[in-house]
Protein 1
Amino acid sequence: MEFQQLKLFLAVADALHFGRAAQQVGMAQPHLSRAIARLEEEIGVRLFDRTSRRVALTAAGERLREEAIEMLQAERRAQQAARAAGQQRRRRLRIAYVSAALYRALPAALRSLSSSSEPIEFALQEATPTSSWR
């Protein structure tokens, strides 16, 4: 199963009409119908109940719809994270703080450091008088 197949499936699942979904994704309706039939064959279950008057999701189709939405959102997040990593160099700053600094000094320091031109990832750890930081 590929992301493109999931996108086509979601177009039909949202429109509940093969013709409108095909128009939405910019392809001919017979090609979209074949793509959905191949997806159903690959998965081994019917995703849509089709009649000459209506299209409805089966229980399997409903479940796939939920999962497909999550997978496509994860795909977008992965692409964005990769682009961000490729475009910017991220620095990591480890900070140990005592509880007295939690309300004034630490937030002010984090705001000041965050305003730099390079993105900084903070790793915060509360320190105790007996703790050591490595």
Note: The chain has two domains: 3-86, 91-126.
Protein 2
Amino acid sequence: MLPDSGHIQEMEVEWKNRKRKREGKEGYPPLYTAEDAVKSLELFKKVNYSELVEIDENIIVRYNDAGHMLGSAIIEIWIKEDGKEEKIVFTGDLGNNDIPLLASPTMIETADYLVMESTYGNRLHMRNDDKAELFLNIVYDTIRRGGNVVIPSFAVRKNTRDSL
């Protein structure tokens, strides 16, 4: 995903720079390129879920399954400073329970500070059985009325050096 993101950076800056040039303004470089992203991957280190990783004597981290998409994580960070230890938990999207192919999100018991994405934080989610029935009813009703069903999708592809 990171090289794809670098490619998107390049394309967006190219488009913006064409506009800036027409306005007589100077262009600017992308924040990073697909090639920068590929090079940065050499610095990555694999870490398993639930594994405690000691960054130094004052910082320990643990990645937990967020259940959102394959590889998504909740990170717990324990920081020791001035003789006191505090725990910070960071998370983006969290998955739901009982999703095929994905584990349920790891339940984090405690945190001194919690930083999380909350786009859907004010909503209650339907049970998966209810979602399937609702979806099938919508498709059936739409087809019965002669309409079309458009199903948006999201895909993540693996990028390799050869595909850049």
Note: The mean pLDDT is 88.
